[in-house]
Design a protein that fits this description.
By secondary structure, the chain is mainly α. The chain has one domain. It has three helices and no strands.
């Protein structure tokens, strides 16, 4: 957990000084979603383009 906190603090430091709380929350949410997606890929929870097209057609 300490790593996540340190990464969040570093990300916030890189934002402009006049960033609103909502902007900080958006950046944190985006980071969380990217990390979740990368974890899904690493664990094999992915669909091919063709599989996605077939699901969308249903």
């Amino acid at each position: 957990m300490a790593k996540a906190k340190a990464e969040a603090i570093e990300m916030i430091k890189q934002l402009p000084n006049d960033v609103a709380t909502s902007g900080i929350m958006e950046e944190l949410f985006f980071k969380q979603q990217v990390e979740k997606g990368l974890q899904d890929v690493a664990e094999g929870r992915v669909l091919s383009h063709q599989e996605l097209k077939e699901r969308m057609a249903q």
